[in-house]
What we know:
The chain is an alpha+beta fold. The chain has helices spanning 13-23, 34-37, 53-66, 69-72, 169-175, 196-201, 225-238, 336-342, and strands spanning 49-51, 76-78, 95-101, 106-112, 116-122, 126-130, 133-136, 142-145, 151-155, 161-167, 180-182, 222-223, 247-250, 265-271, 280-282, 286-292, 295-299, 302-306, 311-314, 320-324, 328-334, 347-349.
Amino acid sequence: MSRGLDTKPETTNARADYYGRIDEYNMAPLWEVIHKLLAREPVTEATPYLWNYDSVRPSLMESADLISTEEAERRVLVLENPTMRGKSCITEALYAGLQLIMPGEIAATHRHSPAALRFIVEGSRAYTAIDGEKAYMEPGDLILTPSWVWHDHGHDGEVPVVWLDGLDIPMVRFMGPVFAEPHPEETHAEGNPVGANMVRYGANMLPYGARLRDEKNSPVFHYPFARSREVLSDLAKSQDLDPYHGVKMEFVNPANGGPTMPTLGTYMQLVPEGFATETYRSTAAWVYSVAEGTGRTTIGEETFEWGPRDTFVVPAWYPHSHEADDDAFLFSFSDKPVHDTLGWFREQRGNA
Ligand code: GTQ
């Protein structure tokens, strides 16, 4: 079938002349671009890519000698998609960065309309405080900072702490409503005790009669790896593996079973030792961080070897499959919730 959408009309001299004349009025012919605007399948500017942690770690550590958290606001190296350099994004809709905080440092309290998640890559005993409630970090933990909540980071431990930041900045910028503000105090006054969010909302119970502050975002903001790891390990023993994902679980908002935040879905996946998944693709893009294990992921035509702490990106609609050498725990985040909410989500299992 090569009717309509696939074929661009010939640019005759008369047409070219006409395009020149309407150009003055800031108008252009749809028929020259409609085949691109309405391509048959998703087209992305982004390229599959992997950041090898051992390769980038020295540069990340060097940043601590060059700039303080105070001066930087947030000491982050943005992971820029190689074919989208200068746009501070890892895909059209997603932002990712590696943030470093050294023992004793703080990163001042602020809030912004873009939502953020942190996936802990290395180190121990740094924290994110949400409205003054601290969540202490261990590798593999997930911490959320939903839209417009006050948050600051600090470090009560002994070794550098690095986490992967995932934000929806590109999509919020695209739609327009970016707001940000510093808190009047560098450090937010102490809030609820450590762990309160998990105790109140994360044990399959909700406080009787209480109204949640916010229904769009999970009231739980700390998802420790100790728990997600155990869940996935148990499931891998007790259930058949999904041929396309191994065992893949979504972190949820316990108040409604929905995604952790309306723009960012968060997932933990176990690809057991020796297992290879079948090819899968979706309209959503995926940013992966390897919590444990080694293996490889083929994305489109390319195969990326990974190990603990590596980050890689699967852009929209790229076929991909994973293979693990030992039990691999893969964290990922995605813009899937937006596709779901707006009715755009599609996926394809296998090469059908
Ligand atoms: O930690 O609040 O990577 O505000 C980018 C913007 C992290 C943060 C980023 C931010 C933060």
